[in-house]
Design a protein that fits this description.
The structure holds two protein chains of two kinds. By secondary structure, chain A is an alpha/beta fold. In chain A, 37% of the residues lie in helices and 18% in strands. Chain A folds into two domains: 154 residues, Rossmann fold (3-Layer(aba) Sandwich); 135 residues, Rossmann fold. Chain A has a seven-stranded mixed beta sheet, with helices on both faces. In chain A, strands 7-9-8-11-12 form a five-stranded mixed beta sheet, sandwiched between helices. In chain A, helix 1 runs parallel beside helix 2, helix 1 crosses helix 7 and helix 3 packs parallel to helix 5. The N and C termini of chain A lie far apart (41 Å). Chain B is of the alpha/beta class. Helices cover 44% and strands 13% of the residues of chain B. In chain B, strand 4 and strand 5 form a beta hairpin. The two termini of chain B are 19 Å apart. The interface between A and B is medium-sized, with 27 and 31 residues.
Chain lengths: 307, 259
């Protein structure tokens, strides 16, 4: 998705003036953007606190700013700068975090972002974008840019099966039809569920939805999603994010407050590092039980238990 | 501006500052008195309409509000609501509601990066307007300030002036006891900045330092006295925190009035 966001920003640059900062990252990805932006592309160095404060200062002069780094370096290291300098004033600063969830795999825990959007959503006025497919980036970048104010973009790795037709971009999309319970997946994790789900018998197959924009109060689920949850009586949420501040928590709250009743709910989320061992993104997903096979099995077990 | 004229203005500002803090029963008066001279001078003499002041040491908010009031840009009724329920002038500045108070500051180590951003944007757009950022000396404990210093020096933001209120005291000790940062001027010079060190209560020296042509980002180290002008507050750390009793307030008013 990193190359795709670069391409999308190159396109945005043709239509809109903005300033781009990188925290000294983006080698073999951001060069095309650097080339076209000239003085408006600034390497702020390995100094993320300053990068975000400077971004806020630039934005206070009426310019849109995009600031990029590896996810934890752009949301966790400069958290107070995001809170005080950007969000308190509602400045038009777009933070781009590469490698959401366990995407940096065996690079280790310091490079993972398991609590990013929960933390960002706790800040006032912050919107979060978690693209599902690489193909979403053009629309996502345009949507982020079109609305003034703080936003956080969590990039992952596109996991769409070859040949799968990507539905037109929307914050909520039905990805795979099925006659079973509703399964909502957040961001690129969804892509890896498509093929295994399509192998299941359609009658019992979970109906897969993807969510890519938060908070839920700003981007509420469509009526069709609500109707399916009520009709099928079972909702499962899967995401590469810890429980606290998760989509699972906030969606359950949203539905409860809205009086939406259903029998079964289960939430599959990042568990951190339960074994104390480290490995690839796939390894950590497996340990958390959020890989495709684990999710399908856990849904099946839950449905059987509740029958 | 004649020396005496500014001194009279400063006296009026100082008396209103003391009254505001006394009536609100809050502290932080020491650092307000060390920085009032510079903040007042900037807002009533040195800055023009395109310039921006950023108070990184947000705990000197009182001096900022008083300076805006002295410049005719803040109503007296706002001062009466300082630190009260329903006020816009909190103990640390809340940004956005007043054109001269753009940023919410108070957590140290933010104002310089914000100022650098404003200065950078104006440079990129080829716009006029200088940026003045006032920091405390203890604030240089914050690593983020050094990040900002690297950045503003590298980008040679010569429309940016840093002022350091070097009163020698910080939250829980003398600055030299907490962290050895002196000589600050040498450190700043090593970043290839235009560094000047003056008596922060000498407004003629301040005028000279600010008026010098800017070919580099400028740093003006203001050697100041915490609690300046009130004998029992001067160089006393407790006046970072304590509200004044009625007797202390009367004494302070008497000393400042006597001048």
């Amino acid at each position: 998705m990193r190359d795709a966001v670069c391409g999308a920003l190159v396109g945005l640059h043709r239509d809109k003036e903005f300033v781009f900062f990188t925290g000294d990252l983006g080698f073999m990805a951001l060069e095309p953007l650097k080339e076209v932006m000239g003085a408006l592309f600034i390497n702020a160095g390995v100094a993320e606190q300053n990068m975000v404060s400077v971004a806020a200062g630039v934005a206070s002069e009426g310019m849109q700013v995009w600031a990029y780094s590896i996810a934890p370096f752009v949301y966790a290291r400069p958290l107070e700068q995001i809170r005080n300098d950007v969000c308190f004033h509602g400045f038009d600063v777009k933070l781009v975090g590469n490698g959401g969830g366990y995407a940096y795999g065996s690079m280790g825990a310091t490079h993972h972002a398991l609590e990013d959007y929960g933390i960002m959503l706790a800040l006032q006025g912050m919107r979060v974008f978690v693209p599902v497919f690489t193909e979403d980036l053009v629309a996502v970048v345009r949507r982020m840019s079109a609305t003034r104010g703080p936003a956080y973009l969590r990039l992952g790795r596109g996991e769409k099966p070859a040949g799968f037709p990507v539905p037109a971009y929307a914050p909520w999309r039905k990805i795979v039809a099925g006659g079973g319970p509703v399964l909502l997946a957040v961001g690129p994790l969804c892509g890896g569920y498509i093929e295994p789900l399509l192998k299941l018998e359609e009658k019992a197959r979970p109906q897969l939805w993807a969510l890519g924009e938060l908070p839920i109060e700003t981007y509420p689920p469509p009526a069709e999603f609500i109707a399916e949850v009520k009709d099928r009586g079972a909702l499962f949420v899967a995401e590469e994010h810890v429980l606290q501040g998760s989509v699972g928590q906030s969606l359950a709250h949203y539905l409860a407050v809205g009086g939406v009743r259903y029998r079964t709910f289960a939430h599959f989320h990042a568990a951190g590092y339960p074994s104390g061992l480290y490995g690839s993104q796939a390894f950590h997903r497996k340990e958390s039980g959020i890989d495709a096979q684990s999710v399908i099995q856990r849904i099946d077990e839950t449905m059987r238990t509740n029958e | 501006m004649e020396n005496m004229e500014f001194k009279n203005r400063l006296k009026k500002a100082k008396l209103r500052l003391l009254r505001m803090h006394y009536e609100s029963k809050i502290g932080h008066i020491g650092g307000n008195l060390s920085s009032l001279d510079a903040i007042l001078y900037l807002h009533t003499v040195a800055m023009d309409a395109t310039d921006l002041f950023v108070l990184s040491k947000g705990h000197s908010a009182g001096a900022l509000y008083i300076s805006h009031w002295m410049a005719g840009k803040l109503d007296e009724s706002e001062l009466d609501r300082f630190h009260r329920d329903g006020s816009r002038i909190a103990g640390h500045p809340v940004g956005g509601w007043h054109p001269g108070i753009r940023f919410s500051t108070g957590s140290l180590g933010h104002g310089l990066g914000l100022s650098a951003g404003v200065a950078l944007a104006r440079t990129l757009k080829g716009e006029q307007g200088r940026v003045f950022c006032l920091l405390s000396d203890g604030e240089w404990n914050e690593g983020s300030n050094w990040e900002s210093l690297i950045f503003l020096a590298h980008h040679c933001l010569k429309n940016l002036t840093l002022l350091v209120d070097a009163n020698g005291l910080q939250g829980f000790g003398a600055t030299g006891e907490v962290a050895t940062l002196e000589p600050l001027a040498e450190k700043f010079r090593s970043f290839a900045l235009d560094v000047r060190e003056i008596n922060g209560h000498d407004h003629m020296a301040l005028a000279t330092a600010l008026a010098a042509p800017a070919t580099l980002p400028k740093v003006v180290i203001l050697r100041t006295v915490k609690g300046k002008g009130v004998s029992f507050m001067e160089n006393r750390m407790e006046w970072h925190y304590l509200p004044m009793t009625e007797e202390q307030y009367s004494r302070a008013v008497e000393e400042v009035s006597r001048g």
